[in-house]
Amino acid sequence: AQKVTQAQTEISVVEKEDVTLDCVYETRDTTYYLFWYKQPPSGELVFLIRRNSFDEQNEISGRYSWNFQKSTSSFNFTITASQVVDSAVYFCALSEAGRNQFYFGTGTSLTVIP
Amino acid sequence: DGGITQSPKYLFRKEGQNVTLSCEQNLNHDAMYWYRQDPGQGLRLIYYSQIVNDFQKGDIAEGYSVSREKKESFPLTVTSAQKNPTAFYLCASSPRTGGTGANVLTFGAGSRLTVL
What we know:
heterodimer; A: 114 residues; mainly beta; six-stranded mixed beta sheet; four-stranded antiparallel beta sheet; B: 116 residues; seven-stranded mixed beta sheet; 0% helix
């Protein structure tokens, strides 16, 4: 069965602190994709990153970085030097290769305090 | 600019009434989806459609119905059979998946339904 777990329901940090959002997944497929989406207060989910199961290289994009570890089935997301604009709900998701079905975690609500 | 338009943004309904939420995309995407979002429960799939005139039930289809008569449109009807319809509804689309790929979902801004 496919499952995505985001154990952190809510996180609050002070501006400029670093914060890591955890994501653990379960799947029996050997080829799959992992995603992170951001949902600001406006409601629309915004795509952040997609990673396939064969690419375990960490990725950095500005203040955002992602750590993919197949050994622990985790795909964690770190925001460096957080800003108020980072306040949002962040969702991790899983999709198995060749199928247009997505499994979402329950989301982590991040509040960055100025 | 291409994107997904959902309407209305806010909708109030009396118990026993059916309501239809609109979702229109101009991205030329084949696949479209409806998700329901409740606090603390993440996104749950209601229905999805891979091509015109075809759709599949998701995890929580009871009390909902859809149609896919045109590629760009995927309306969702919340029927009176849905026991707890108050929620935030998100429509999404993606290109049709081929081979071993996985496509990115593009989301609309959502519709918030409140049952009075």
